[in-house]
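tool_call predict_complex ligand=iron/sulfur cluster
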Amino acid sequence: MAHPVIDADECISCGVCVDTCPCGVLELQDVATVVDEDSCAACGACQEACPAGAITEIAED
Ligand code: SF4
Ligand code: SF4
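tool_result ok
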């Protein structure tokens, strides 16, 4: 399954990735958190949208 890898130290909790994801994969808790990994389409939109560069990769595993 694919999922974004979020660097919690870099995340500024802006919520942009949560709003950008078309699949409801992410939720803003203390920092952006993957809550529905099975729905990730590995589209990369969240990574592209993150203003802090906190989404380091879309991992396929
Ligand atoms: S890669 Fe796409 S589907 Fe997966 S969490 Fe990011 S925006 Fe959502
Ligand atoms: S877009 Fe980046 S900085 Fe903003 S909540 Fe998501 S991971 Fe954190």
